[in-house]
Amino acid sequence: MALKDLKKFIGESLIIGYNVSFDIDFLNRSLDENSEEHIVNSVKDMMPVAKKANVFLDDYRLETVLDYFKIKNNHPHNSLGDAIATLDLAKRLL
Question: 17 Cβ partners below 8 Å, 6+ apart?
Answer without folding.
Answer: 23, 24, 43, 44, 45, 46, 83, 86
